[in-house]
Amino acid sequence: MNSSAAVPGFPGGTAVSGLRVYDWESNDGLCGGSPHLHTVSSEAYLVTNGTGQVHTISMDGPAEHDLATGSLLWFSPGTVHRLVNTAELTLNVIMSNAGLPEAGDSVLTFPRHVLEDPNLYAQHAVLPPDADQSVITAAARRRRDLALEGYAELHQSVLRDGPEALAEFHRLAAALVRPKVERWKEIWAANVRSQMAATEQALLELADGSAASMAGAAVARGRQRTGEGYGMCGRLTTWEDSRL
Predict the structure, then answer these.
(1) Distance of CA 148 to CAs 41, 71, 186, 194, Å?
(2) Model confidence pLDDT, tens digit, residues 59-82
(3) How many domains, in total, are found in the chain?
(4) Inside any domain, residue 181
């Protein structure tokens, strides 16, 4: 049967990726990724293999959360998070606001002097494009180590000064992402608000006894991209047509 139905968007304006958390050891003896936060997007971890922890700094202060196969944990924007890999930690990552994390909704916990200089921040945050794997790996490790340096400073500041120390980091993060926000609004409208509007319209139609909203019934399949990318916390597996 031929169908003219449009390809459905990925559910709920969310996005999904696979993550193999870095096993690189850092100066504090722990293996894992780069601590960072997202300014507007929530994030969830569903552990599919291995063990580890996610270290967070929220308005409740620093905390450590154990992860094992089957663990499900999520957190809101503004939560600093660091994944620690103790044994082959592998996750499925689900994020709100599909398209925004890929458009720059993340701020690494670099030292303050880096956060205060957008050009210097970009130099350390962006990995070299089209380089050999060894070059990209070395750059990703340097980025992780610099983020851990700032993370240690932030951690101590929060222990000493409480939530205001995290609020100050939030202000620095907001200043860094501000130039991107107009573009983010466009992405959000296309990927998230459009699905919200479609649901609202469907509810109105169903309340009137109409099944018109189901006339577009369709199925979509995401094709896994070849190779793995370098994320903040590990090697990423992504799929086409899933907003990642």
Answers:
(1) 22, 25, 33, 38
(2) 999 999 999 999 999 999 999 999
(3) 1
(4) yes
